[in-house]
Amino acid sequence: MDLVQRFSTVEDLSDPTLLDDLQIHLERIQAEDEEFMQILLDKKGEMIVTWEQPWYQQTNCLTRPLKVENDETIEKYRTDTICYEESKRINKNWKNFRKTYNVPNRPECLARWRNKVKSRHPNTPEEFVRRFVMAYLARGLNRTVYQVYKYFITHYGSPLKGRYSLYEENIMAICINHNPKNVVPYLSAVLGREPRGIYKKMVEFFNGKPDSRKLKWTLPLATKFLKLLIQYTGEPLENLKNKKIDKSVWLQLEKDMDQQYIYLQLFWYHTLHVQLFVQYDVKLNKLRKKILKKVKLYPYRIWSDIRWKEILTHFADGFSHGFLYRVTYAIFKHYKGYRQTPMEELLAYGLQRIKTMPNKRLRTLVLNKNQELEIISYKK
């Protein structure tokens, strides 16, 4: 069924045939997933680990992160986001798996399949084959099987990202109107989106969209924010440089500042934090050049490979990785396809682009004797 054609225009949300059509579509998806699982079960006898596995891939639990105690003597594994080269390795391993075991190229079926009615004991046939496939995909990676599993189900099981289209909103409205059981997992399977995003969207349906209005920050407003932050954390300003601020504090600030706490967090970590704790003259274009040169030192292949906390280690205390990301993003935000552009090409463009950008100073601030923020001037 073409969901776009069927649900782009809906005149009567209470029409029961709409939910019937969705149920038919869902049952077709589930039948495909079960058929693929049966193909894997038929291959179970051939699924033998013949390669050497690091200790962190020798686990019986697929759906829970690995719990280990801090031990400097054991081999470490990566915990950051899976990068471009690793994703290529996973895709190559999947291709080899298909060829070796003669299974169809339907990764989405395995990613969507859920063990709902059968036992979740790790020794059940279904869990065994799922775990084996993920272990196969993890070959050659410095990753746990759970990390590869999470990447796999996100990449293939919930491929749709970004704004919701009209037909998706209509489908959600139909489900809200008819209230099927387990509506969030239901919609996740039908739409191919992550449950977390669907849940947030449904909250908007019931409560309305949150106010997306952003404050226009002025020195008095920033002073008010900083004083409240100091008050609610109970810490002096100098202790806030490296302090992780609890969500409860942000919720208090949200109420007092009449602004969503997510915007307050961005203002703090991407702007005010740097303005307060970097106490010297910084020309932004010079900073951008340095960032690009440091990026070049790493084997990053595309933009999404960049680990901004790694880049942060090359800069003075007081900068934040969010700030470095923001000033670098300003170089490429109008460059079409920058996220997938090879890094060498992207850096060459960036160094040329900086030459045409206004060379502004970082505005640094200090609390004066009246406990109000004022600008530090470095102009001679």
Structure description:
This protein is mainly α and about 375 residues long. The protein folds into four domains: about 5-30 and about 160-205, no CATH class; about 45-155, no CATH class; about 220-280 and about 365-375, no CATH class; about 285-355. About 55% of the residues lie in helices and about 0% in strands. It has 16 helices and two strands. The chain has a two-stranded antiparallel ribbon. The radius of gyration is 25 Å and the shape is globular.
Short descriptors:
globular; mainly alpha; 380 residues; 2% strand; 53% helix; two-stranded antiparallel ribbon; 4 domains
The count of domains is 4
What characterizes the major β-sheet?
2 strands, antiparallel
Radius of gyration: 25 Å
Number of strands: 2
Shape: globular
Question: What percent of residues are in strands?
Answer: under 5%
Helix share of residues? 40-55%
The SS-based structural class is mainly alpha
Chain-wise SSE layout:
Layout: H1 3-7, H2 16-42, H3 84-101, H4 107-112, H5 125-137, H6 145-157, H7 166-178, H8 183-191, H9 195-207, H10 219-233, H11 247-257, H12 261-277, H13 284-296, H14 308-312, H15 321-332, H16 343-354, E1 365-367, E2 373-375
Antiparallel strand pairs: 1-2
Helix pairs in contact: 2-7, 5-6, 10-11, 11-12, 12-15, 13-15, 13-16
